[in-house]
Amino acid sequence: MTEIWFMRHGETDWNTVHRLQGWRDIALNDVGRHQAERLSGRLQQAHLEQPFAAAYTSDLQRTVDTLTPAAVRIGLAPILDQGLRERHYGVLEGFAVSEMAAKAPPEAYAAWLSRDEHGDVGHGETLRQFHDRIISSVQKIADRHAGERILIMTHGGALDIIWRHAHGTALTDKKRRAPMLNVSINRVILDGDHWEVVEWGNVEHMAEPVGNDVVA
């Protein structure tokens, strides 16, 4: 059994306008950097109560930079794993959701909108390929850390895949049934190939001081 604290990176300027980032290496904005510091206090507090054995992150800078303050506080070197990246949205990357219908390549937009798990977004990943990459990457990490508690910093799309997999929700279901919040803590227990969500969307650390944080 492995307990994983999954987290989404902090805010970027592209998040604020709902622009598809995918594999584009977009930096945190000032809000995102503040969020990362607040999250680090919560993770330091949790580490003192029960140590984390390892800290993994997608290799994109928005996730690395969100995890780094916590990694420094708790003394764990971040392990970069490309398998934890956001979905590769192909030709759709860089488009804001509000402009896609008018400006994006029609076939790619239709594939994205339909949630067809084999739909081609043009030089990117199908939804099924993305699902299989995320689940395989997480399962390998969990198997490596049986009996331990670890951190994984990833992306909103990846969290959606994780939540659906744990609940047996179809990829084609267009309704998002759980929040995918920036710097949220989402705890999942993996016991072999059984995944169980025990907490989701916790951002209490953004509302109250934690650990050594001082609210100015």
What's the short version?
With 216 residues, this protein is α/β, with parallel strands linked by helices. The protein contains seven helices and six strands; from the N terminus they run βααβαβαααβαββ. The N and C termini lie far apart (40 Å).
Layout of strands and helices, then pairs:
Elements: E1 2-8, H1 13-16, H2 30-49, E2 54-57, H3 61-74, E3 79-80, H4 97-103, H5 106-114, H6 127-144, E4 149-154, H7 156-167, E5 185-191, E6 194-202
Parallel strand pairs: 1-4, 2-3, 2-4
Antiparallel strand pairs: 1-5, 5-6
What descriptors fit this protein?
16% strand, 7 helices, disordered C terminus, 216 residues, alpha/beta, globular, Rossmann fold
- Looking at CATH, which topology would you report? Rossmann fold
Total separate domains: 1
- The first-to-last residue Cα distance is 40 Å
Portion in strands: 15-25%
Spatial strand arrangement across the major sheet? 3-2-4-1-5-6
The major pleated sheet works out as: 6 strands, mixed
Number of beta-strand segments? 6
**Residues in helices, as a percent range:** 25-40%
Reported CATH architecture: 3-Layer(aba) Sandwich
CATH superfamily: Phosphoglycerate mutase-like
Class inferred from helices and paired strands: alpha/beta
Low-confidence stretches: 210-216
Number of helices: 7
Rounded mean pLDDT score: 95
Order of H and E elements:
EHHEHEHHHEHEE
CATH class: Alpha Beta
Basic shape: globular
What is the rounded Rg? 17 Å
